[in-house]
Amino acid sequence: MKKLTLLFLFAISFLNGISQSDTLFTDSKKKIPCKIYEINEYEIKYRRAESTDGPIYVIDKSTVIKYSLSNGFTELLKHDELSLENEHKEILGSREVIKINPFSFAFNHVSVGYEKVVKVGTNLDVEAGYINSSISPNQGISLSGRISQNPFYSGAYIKPGVKFFLGEDFSVKGLKYAHPLKGRYIRLDLAFSFVNYQGFEKMVYTGSYPNYATSIVKSDLKTFAYGGFVNYGRQFILGNVLTLDYYMGVGFTGQSYSYTNPLYTSLSSNYGGGYYNNEINQVYNYHGFLRIPVIGLSWTAGLRLGYIIPEKKSEKKRNTTSGTGN
User: Fold this and answer.
1) Is residue 37 domain-shared with residue 107, that is, in the same domain?
2) Which of 299, 151, 139 is nearest to 223 (CA)?
3) Are 101 and 189 in a shared domain?
4) Is the bond preceding 55 in cis, omega lying within 30 degrees of 0?
5) What is the pTM of this model?
6) pLDDT range class, residue 86, cuts 50, 70, 90
7) 323 assigned to some structural domain
């Protein structure tokens, strides 16, 4: 009976403490009974009502819509919609983007990309493309001295990379990233591109003038280029739904190639050999990047439009209800 009485008194005391506590009301419709210790411009510090000697928790003031004190005072917190800190508030938890290059079709390839925040300031960024000269027939390569002036080609490329967003070189209390998908960045990426050219042709002459015969030797050219790039770019967020970014980069690439018909390469003497009579020396566009033949100096650039993948509801709920202890 004595134990039951003690439990009853403890419950009464606990409920009385709760009833005399302060309360925070968040925009996720959660009530937090607590003891508020500090309210400043950016955050509210408090201890939980059931543990007034416990750790101090900090909550972003922009996530609180109202608070009530134990003395009965209540204040509604009206947040400025035009404030920069609220600009991307609704998508702070959305950290993945699917991208396309809207102008890639004009250059005989289809480009898609994926970006994901690894941690604030560091993102994974992967771009891949399918290459086909039939996408835009007006584009292609023109080889002098060849029967096939615009050979058909197809292939693919991939550029996996890591994006580092650039912060300021000074520190200001309360200064934060607007969003982990927004800002100026340096991207380091690798690049791999395979292109298969079909239908190269050379004329073969046998006999002597005027009694000579002609025949045509055909071959495909398979070429693979690989290397690394350093890029500088900037990414914007449009309407909290889309991203738009541009970038430019330089790097070095290597190259390997092979002809499917060995006889084709042995006939180069019919054209006197030389730099411009070797097809591989006229292949510079690997679509993921441009390459100076032989030298290997390469550059790349792009303009990409992305769709921000909404945060999953389960994760959004967890992010908005979790507190931070000091």
Assistant:
1) no
2) 151
3) yes
4) no
5) 0.70
6) low
7) no
